[in-house]
Design brief:
This protein is α/β, with parallel strands linked by helices and about 350 residues long. The protein is built from eleven helices and 13 strands. Bound molecules: nicotinamide-adenine-dinucleotide (NAD).
């Protein structure tokens, strides 16, 4: 075990942040979880609230924070399109001002800082799979720009702080990650499909469903973040963390139907603006520098995710026909006239 440290996790009540808090506590560290609960949930960290090495602070990272820490994981930012587009100005400010304040904190305390960046910095990529030296193809004025450009600017700040102040920064470009504690209504494709399948409602496939994504199970991703933070000081990334196994949206929908045993239909809805056609990480850099690659196959990860969502339901509506509680309703964007039966 590495030396116990005081570790700040911003966005610690979110999907990824809460799993990271779990793993850091398990490794013997002290964890300060900072969150404004805009998209995070107390349910994600309820099991940690009595832990002697866990502390929770409600705070918005758009404001300065004065604490003493050894490491900083900056994960605070809404991550799904409906969430980050709900208040796009706040999203940009969270990424840019948040990174700025946390880099200032790292400078004052001498802490290492890991910035959660995203595959969205590649935009709708013109090269495939995406390698870290590809500069991206992002629309700077579209509805996704608050997230994509906010994250790009956060990366810029990290590298300027490193050049100017010698700060020990690490930038992870995270590709689509899924697993327990995703929100049922966050509009991300895995949670959408699983909740729709379990509730017996039509699975919403955008476009013709041939666009691809690569899905990384949450445990693998957290393992990658921990390895990146623990990597040599002269390795700062940016480094892709994701699963290179690529699926079309239609294949994913069919697999979810098969694993849930649901008889729900698949329906098609218009493709959102600036939706990338293909996404797959080249993880050569992570393999070389971190000795990291994902270990959990999609089927296993989906089974665990389905179990999680099932566990939150009184009974399985796919089988019992029970209505979901109101906060469980998925985004219903399918056009009834274009439903396909499976
Ligand atoms: N999950 C993915 O597939 C994925 C992919 C790429 C990048 N990321 C990045 O990883 C990080 C975590 O994503 P996630 O999937 O856990 O999302 P999430 O929405 O579940 O978690 C984000 C957390 O940050 C908190 N937060 C948002 N704005 C804040 C602010 N101004 N101050 C303090 N807290 C704030 C939210 O309340 C939430 O708890 C994000 O930075 C996201 O951009 C995630």
């Amino acid at each position: 075990m590495t030396r116990p440290a005081r570790i700040l996790v911003t966005g610690g009540a979110g999907f990824l942040g809460s799993h990271l808090c779990d793993r850091l506590l398990l490794a013997g560290h002290e964890v300060l979880c900072v969150d404004n609960f805009s998209t995070g949930s107390k349910r994600n960290i309820a099991h940690l609230l009595g832990h002697p090495r866990f502390e929770l602070l409600r705070h918005d990272i758009g404001l300065p924070l004065r604490v003493e820490v050894d490491d900083i994981y900056n994960l605070a930012c809404p991550a799904s399109p409906p969430h980050y587009q709900r208040d796009s100005l706040q999203t940009t400010l969270t990424s840019v001002q948040g990174a700025f304040h946390l880099l200032g904190l790292a400078l004052r305390t001498g802490a290492r800082l890991l910035q959660a960046s995203t595959s969205e910095v590649y935009g709708d990529p013109a090269c495939h799979p995406q390698r870290e030296d590809y500069w991206g193809h992002v629309n700077p004025i579209g509805p996704r720009a608050c997230y994509d450009e906010g994250k790009r600017c956060a990366e810029t700040l990290c590298f300027d702080y490193r050049r100017r102040h010698g700060l020990r920064v690490k930038v992870a470009r995270i590709f689509n990650t899924y697993g327990p504690r995703m929100q049922a209504d966050d509009g991300r494709v895995v949670s959408n499909f699983v909740v729709q399948a379990l509730s017996g409602s039509t699975l919403t496939v955008f476009g013709d469903g041939r666009q691809t994504r690569s899905f990384c199970y949450v445990d693998d991703l957290i393992d990658g973040l921990l390895r990146l933070m623990g990597s040599a000081d002269d390795f700062c990334g940016p480094v892709n963390l994701g699963n290179p196994a690529e699926s079309t949206m239609l294949e994913l929908a069919q697999q979810v139907l098969m694993l849930t045993g649901s008889r729900a239909a698949i329906g098609f809805a218009p493709l959102p603006v600036d939706d990338p056609a293909r996404r797959r990480p080249d993880i050569g850099l992570a393999m070389r520098h971190l000795g990291w690659q994902p270990a959990v196959p999609l089927r296993t990860g989906l089974e665990r995710t389905i179990d999680y969502f099932r566990g939150l339901l009184p009974q399985d509506p796919a089988v019992a026909g029970t209505a979901l509680p109101p906060d469980w309703l998925p985004v219903e964007a399918a056009r009834p006239e274009s439903r396909l039966r499976h």
